[in-house]
Structures are given as structure tokens and as C-alpha cells.
Amino acid sequence: MSVAAAAAVLAGIVTAAAPAGAAGAPAGTAAACTPSLKALGTVASKEPSAHDNDSVLALGAPKFAAGRSANLPVYWTGTTVHKVPLPHPADTGAVLAVNTKNLMVGQFRSGVDAKVRGFSYKAGDPAVKVLPEMYWQRDAIDVNDAGTIVMTGADGVGFVWKNGKEARRLALPADTGPDTRLVTTVALNKRGDIVGVAEQDHEVPETGQRIWRTYPVLWPAGGKPAKALPDSAGGHYWTQEVQDIDNSGRVVGYDWHGPWHEYRPSYQADQSKPGIDPGRLGAFPYGTFEAISPTTNVSVGTAKYHPEVTVLPDQAQYWPGFGPVLGLPRLSPNGASAAEAVSDSDRVGGSAVNAKGVRKPVVWTCASRQASLPQ
């Protein structure tokens, strides 16, 4: 690596020509873009571990991103970081989703009563709009371009929030088995389809057999009744973790074999069939999909090894809906990376560890021209 290139890496900006084996640009994306990997600004903190979870978690309009820095909800315009104004200085949280109009939603833990609540926020407003209490988890709230919000309340009930008030409660499918609960709502798309995860934990009285499983649930747009989606996980100790849904109804996520930390990505284009596993990135044994673009059929996530057998650090992965799973470049050769969000404009958001060992929130621009097979 040249001195100039090394300096660019340390500055958090890498600009590269399309690598061999790179994916073609997704349909509908701008052809004129410059491939780059940019580290974004972060909130200053004196705590050494404050930036361990810094990440871009959502992408809005061009040059707009949102997520978490120093355990606070933030958004970025370009590479400049802005704090979301929470009600109390001791509050912590994250922006978990943003629409193309830059309306953000997220969650925060109160520094006063320790309760977790949702919030919505538009850049430039003097304060967040506080939403009801909710679970503390990564995918419990989302917003679409109509401004409709879906979230899971602290009572374990999913509901839709419109125009500042509750518009709908999300009942489980009519044929749901006994001892089943909603784990979380996860995402909704432009037309209003909602996906989530349900869990059944039931002991059959007659036999003592225990039935335990998790499976995806779809609430179709327009208030239609919920239905269970075919489960791609299957098998004892396997759970299906749905993460996102695109505007045509494609669902992505991963199957998780808990005791062994095994992850396999899941992509479900046909809601009448279980999701498929598109494979792994190079020699990585495991991988996830965390997001799918609204219309261009691009899924992103993270390639992994078992945490006790780290042959390679985690790497952000990219799948254009065909062919092999591809990798996105790292900030530093031995630094882990992860992809959490993807847009129709060929941007991917996530995090990456730089040459100093510090995790940074990052955006890959013109990602399709950077994604490639491992060398």
C-alpha cells in the first residue's frame, strides 16, 4: 500500500476502482457514482468502550444516515454527526430506522426511570416525539415513507402508530397454537406490509412433549389478517430471525443455531415457500442478512466465524439477488466490519474497525462496484 493510500485509510476514506468479481450496479441505481468507503464522525466520549457499538443502522435520502454513536441516537449529513435531542442528558439509545424523507424512529432508555421508550424525530426539530414503552431490542421499531410507524410495546403487543396515535393492534394469526407470543415486529414496507417473529413454547399435556419454535409472521397491508410464513430454520435449537421486508414483499434475515453460534442467511422471495440460503462469503462458515434494499433486491449482512474460532474477523457481505455472496472492503486489513442497512441508491451502511482498532460508523458508496469475491 502506498503512503497516500495508507493515509486515506487512516482518514477513514477509501476510494477504489471496481474489484475483480464485483457485482453489477443494481437496476435503478445511479450509474455515475464514485466507489468509496467513508468513516463518519462520532460523538466525543471519555469512556474507552463508548464507541464499541457505533454503527450506521439506517439510510435515508442521499448523504443522510442514522444510527448510534457513544450509545446515543445520532444522524449524519455527509460525514458530520448530529445528536438526536433526547429528553434527559442521561438518556441513551439509537436511531433504528429512517425513511426517505429523513423521519427517524428509534428507542431510548431513560436516565430517570430506566424505562425504554420509542421516539420519532425529524432533523432540525427541537425535541423528539416520545412514543410508548417498548422492548429494548435492535429491530423493534420501523417507519415507512408514509410516516407509518410499527413497534412492539413493553406489554409484548405489536401496534401501528399513525398521525401521533395508535391506529391498529397486531393480532397473531387465527390458527396460532397455544402458548404463542409475539417476540417482536421487525419491519414494514412502503405499501404497509409488516413482518415480525412469533414464539411458541408449549408442553402437550397428554404426552409431556415440549413444542418450542420461532417463526416469521406477516401482517399484510390494508389491515388484512396475519399469517404465519413458512419457517426456513427447522430442527431443534434453530430459530428464524426475520430482519427486513422490501416493497415487493421479499423477506430477509437469518437462521440461528443458538448453542453453537451458527448463522445462515435466509432470503424469501416467495411467501408460500421457506426462505433459501444463498451460501457463504468465501471460507466463512456463517453469515447473516440484516437488510434488503426497498426495490433493487440487494441484501446485506455480516459473514462470521464462531466467536471462539476467529480465523478471520467478521466482514460486511453483499448479495445482489443472484450468484455468490460477495464481500465489501474493510477499513483496515485485519479490522472487522458489518453491514446493517442498504438503499436503492447503492449505499450500504454499517461499521468497520480502523487501523487503530477503533470501530467506526461507515458508509460504502457505489457498493455494487466494491463488492467482490475474497482473493
Low-confidence stretches: 1-20
| Rg result | 20 Å
Beta strands, count: 29
Proportion of strand residues = 35-45%
Query: Architecture, CATH level 2?
Result: 7 Propeller
Q: How would you characterize the overall build of this protein?
A:
It is a single chain. This protein has 375 residues and is mostly beta strands. It has one domain (3-369): Methylamine Dehydrogenase, Chain H, CATH 2.130.10. It contains one helix and 29 strands. Strands 1-2-29-28-27 form a five-stranded antiparallel beta sheet. A hairpin with a 5-residue loop joins strand 12 and strand 13. The two termini are 16 Å apart.
Topology record:
Blueprint: H1 3-10, E1 13-15, E2 36-39, E3 55-59, E4 64-69, E5 72-77, E6 80-83, E7 92-98, E8 103-109, E9 116-122, E10 129-133, E11 141-143, E12 149-152, E13 158-162, E14 165-170, E15 180-188, E16 194-203, E17 210-219, E18 227-228, E19 238-245, E20 251-257, E21 262-268, E22 286-287, E23 291-292, E24 299-304, E25 315-319, E26 326-327, E27 337-342, E28 348-353, E29 359-365
Antiparallel strand pairs: 1-2, 2-29, 3-4, 4-5, 5-6, 7-8, 8-9, 9-10, 11-12, 12-13, 13-14, 15-16, 16-17, 17-18, 19-20, 20-21, 22-24, 23-24, 24-25, 25-26, 27-28, 28-29
